[in-house]
Design brief:
homodimer; alpha/beta; 434 Repressor (Amino-terminal Domain); Rossmann fold; 3 domains; 6-stranded parallel sheet; 6-stranded mixed sheet; 13 helices; 47% helix; DNA-binding
DNA sequence: ATGAAAGCGCTAACAG
DNA sequence: CTGTTAGCGCTTTCAT
């Protein structure tokens, strides 16, 4: 653009600072000049130069977000896309821009973050993955740079985070299944080192305890990754030893695999529940019952927390996003 | 950050302008002072302030990308994520940052673009969708603002774009099937108003002509959207009237549906080919043969074109990205 | 080969 | 309520 505040000032016969005030919405400005200025802005089609504004303000109104690019999951599970749309929604509502970077390794993640911090290009950062002993969190804390984590970090002290209550979510699934009369419920999980995996398994166990049922370790299977074929094999393995009436999986892909084993062997009467409610869940045959984790909301509230901290220094330490059990054919038993 | 160029200058006993020159890699600087300055930079952990640089340079080194947020496709097909990783890769290589916005409607898309253009926040824009009679393209052309389109636009005059050769890709699929002895090949497509759909259908038809086979209009089915259930129905409908030995689908989801109909009815001996090679394709039973469109490359070259235009004003009018037929079980006939 | 100085467009005291 | 002025941190002539 070529038209600057000076031009507007001249056009409206006021000083640049008055124009600035009108734009900032200062109250100590007469309605009259406000109108004059706004008209001039309109007429000249003036738009503020963000770089100049950033320079004086020491803030850019840009949020940086860092995303894993290698995770298999990135492509099979629209989680990150949902998160991004959620962030985008809040950002648009509050006039923020969004920048993103992908990283392959933890080192790349750290250097991406350092780059953001050092360049003064973003006001705050949203982390979409948490590692145990996360170096990035440590770095950001040391620099005292505003950030929000999606997913509960190892050490929640002094960090803003947003997550589902994965314990509760799984607990409720079990409660529901118990209420329906199920007594033998198998568990298929993956990536047991992740917090979310741990929480879901705890929910599974606690539900058993609370309801007075024994936990059968042979009914608990943990595989290495969220993949259909691994779910398929896990189901097979479980059926070799046990005959559950329901199976809960910590991920839809695992559930797809488990389900397809049942379909293939024509085994009826076993309910299956997945997690994440990915779009394909509803197109499975039978359509898969799944826990929706509201990834978009996770993004939305992450952005909200960050902006709140940035603008009002309000520190809601964390948000818990509701999960919803979406019941479909796979639990019609 | 707090350490500015001035600080570095003082630390190195030179003037700020010298520091600036060292950073810019000016040649008219003695090795000695170059070293002195670099040491000071290191010692102080100095990082240039991008906003200030943008203000003087009139460029931000930021690329804006606009993405549809409503398209069902966004969540079922990792196309956009792949594109984003590709853009990100080139951007990182060339020192650019990336900003994104989602839009729901064409109006939102346009206003997102106007926002980018007006705010001087981005140097160029990548459009990930093309509408016929795209207002955004028109706007950007009028403003003479640098942009690249992923997908071939209606009118390619004066626009930089990158795309697959969808005609060729489908043509080659057909040629392969003909060579394998197939003579009755059905077509299931969707969204016939899109350029990619048109091109793929043309490829299908041209392959018939070139190879001297008649086109049977009853074997061509176009549905409204890329959905599994619609593919399922289409397959059913085709089999009511015809008995093809192969079916080509313009999208994997359509192919999944078509395939599941065959599995359900236990119909053997019909080959199926999909398009896009989404990750789930390889986990289908039977694993789906599909055309990989290299979405990541599309993004990579889109970014490259844009940066080339920005920095060297080199105008490669377009890139064509290779497609690859990934053969799996579904064409083992 | 290096320094001095002006200016990019905006905001925020400080005056009045 | 509004204008004047002084920077924000960097690049870039223009000198030397």
């Amino acid at each position: 653009m070529d038209v600057t505040m000076k031009d507007v000032a001249k056009e409206a016969n006021v000083s640049p600072s008055t124009v600035s005030r009108v734009i900032a919405g200062s109250d100590r400005i007469s309605e009259e000049t406000k109108k004059k200025v706004n008209d001039a802005i309109e007429r000249l089609n003036y738009h503020p130069n963000i770089a100049a504004r950033s320079l004086t303000n020491k803030m850019t109104k840009v949020i940086g977000i860092v995303l894993p690019s290698e995770a298999e999951h990135l492509f099979k599970n629209p989680f990150f896309i949902y998160v991004m749309t959620g962030i985008s929604k809040y950002a648009q509502e509050s006039g923020y821009y969004i920048m993103y970077t992908f990283f392959k390794t933890e080192e790349e993640k750290l250097s991406a973050i350092q780059n953001y911090v050092n360049s003064n290009l973003v006001d705050g950062i949203i982390l979409t993955t948490v590692h145990s002993k996360d170096q990035c969190i440590k770095y950001l804390q040391e620099k005292d740079f505003p950030f929000v984590v999606i997913g509960r970090p190892e050490d929640t002290k002094n960090v803003l985070w947003v997550d589902n209550d994965n314990f509760q979510a799984m607990y409720n699934v079990l409660r529901k299944l118990f209420m329906k009369g199920h007594r033998e419920i198998a568990f298929i999980g993956a990536k047991s080192e992740l917090n979310v995996s741990k929480d879901r398994l705890s929910g599974y166990k606690q539900a058993h305890k609370t309801n007075g049922f024994d936990i059968d370790e042979k009914s608990i299977l943990e595989v290495e990754d969220f993949r259909e074929d691994l779910g398929y094999n896990a189901m097979k393995k479980i059926l070799n030893e046990r005959k559950p009436t329901a199976v809960v999986c910590t991920d839809d892909l695992l559930a797809f695999g488990a389900s397809s084993y049942l379909v293939e062997k024509n085994i009826k009467g076993i309910s299956i529940v997945g997690f994440n409610n990915i779009p394909l869940a509803e197109y499975q045959k039978p359509a898969l019952t799944s826990v929706d984790i509201n990834a978009k909301e996770l993004g939305y509230y992450a952005a909200k927390m960050l902006v709140d901290k940035l603008e009002k220094d309000i520190m809601n330490r964390h948000y818990i996003i509701e999960t919803n059990l979406i019941e479909r054919e796979s639990t019609n038993h």
